[in-house]
Design goal:
By secondary structure, this protein is an alpha/beta fold. About 50% of the residues lie in helices and about 10% in strands. The structure holds zinc ion.
Length: about 350
């Protein structure tokens, strides 16, 4: 059985970044006396400087680090500082890029990591992986540790760009096909999926799929989405891999990213589009899935993202090659041009 750990605390409240002094000690009781590395990016320092200033007052031994990119080198630079300067805890304050760099630096530096998101664009919030650029053309998902603490201010997330929240929804809804592919992989290998991880991932999916509150800017919805993304991350931690959250729809997203970097589409949007196609390839009825995505105003028309028929066909045909070890529906169905063209036409 896979050994797993859970975050020590998860706090989702309105206005909680206003009194971080009380909250951070819940995550790490001795944090006030510790040397703490606070990681964010320059743009956020301008917009949310007041939270950072307060945090630095609350943590007198803290130091602020501004990162420029979400690269492996950047994370290693921070890890080197952690080791050289003796930092004892690391806080990531920002979006997915900042959080992934801070998470990986904390993992390499072997210190506890607290996650303070300012947006919710994917389930890396609580996941045991970090997606980092190895060089200009190569992005890699690297295994690391889940956060020690996750603290989410609902009021801050409500002001995040709507497209980022939609991306978080897309990443959650894509579990609809990821879970199907996970079972397919398990039966192909003659083993079972981890029931508990499956259940948690399914709960994350249903909380968004069957949710009546579709207003993305409501406090109620932000809380539901946060919990769903955290559950998505925990399911990966429990399973010991990303299969509860990532199937053929994610392979399509990776293929787009690797083969067509000029297509600018958020991760959550790419996997939402991928999920509709995977659902059709899985021989399931995709109407309910499409209706749900439309209810959240998520566009699954590939043309809307500049994905032409040729790109669509090629990206799907190359999808399996992005993670060769994975068994998904793509290993079982025909990906002939005519099949994919027919699906493309249904979508546009
Ligand atoms: Zn994802």
């Amino acid at each position: 059985m896979n050994q797993f750990s859970l975050p020590y605390c998860l706090i989702i409240e309105e206005g909680i970044y206003e009194h971080l002094d009380e909250v951070l000690v819940e995550c790490i009781p001795e944090i006030v006396e510790q040397k703490v590395m606070v990681v964010t990016e320059p743009a956020l320092q301008d917009i949310m400087g007041k939270y950072l200033e307060e945090m630095q007052k609350d943590l007198p031994l803290s130091e602020l680090f501004l990162i420029e990119e979400n690269s492996f080198d950047q994370a290693m630079e921070l890890a080197k500082e952690i080791c050289a300067q003796g930092f004892q805890a690391i806080i990531g304050f920002g979006g997915g890029k900042v959080l992934d760099v801070a998470k990986y630096a904390g993992f390499v530096g072997k210190i506890p990591y607290i996650c303070l998101p300012t947006t919710l664009s994917n389930d890396s919030l609580a996941s045991p992986v970090a997606v980092l650029d190895l060089d200009k053309d190569t992005r890699k998902t690297l295994g690391c540790k889940i956060p020690t603490g996750i603290v989410v201010d609902v009021n801050v997330i409500m002001n995040a760009p709507i497209m980022q929240l939609k991306s978080g929804i897309g990443d959650t809804i894509s579990k609809y096909t990821a879970l199907y592919d996970w079972k397919l992989d398990a039966s192909h290998r003659g083993n079972r999926v981890d029931d508990f991880a499956y259940m948690i991932s399914d709960m994350a999916l249903t909380s968004i799929f069957y949710n009546d509150e579709k207003s993305l800017k409501s406090k109620e919805f932000i809380k539901i989405l946060t919990q769903a993304l955290v559950m998505g991350g925990l399911a990966m931690e429990i399973a010991g891999n990303s299969r509860p959250s990532s199937g053929s729809e994610h392979l399509f997203a990776h293929s787009l990213e690797e083969n067509y970097p000029e297509i600018k589409i958020q991760h959550g949007m790419a996997v939402a589009l991928g999920s509709v196609v995977s659902c059709i390839l899985q021989g399931r009825n995709a109407i309910r899935l499409r209706e749900t995505l439309e209810a959240y105003d998520i566009n699954v028309n590939p043309l809307g993202w500049g994905i032409t028929k040729d790109i669509f066909v090629d990206a799907w045909q190359k999808a399996s090659a992005t993670r060769k070890e994975r068994y998904t529906i793509l290993n079982e169905v025909s990906l002939e041009r005519s099949v994919l063209e027919r699906i493309y036409e249904q979508l546009v």
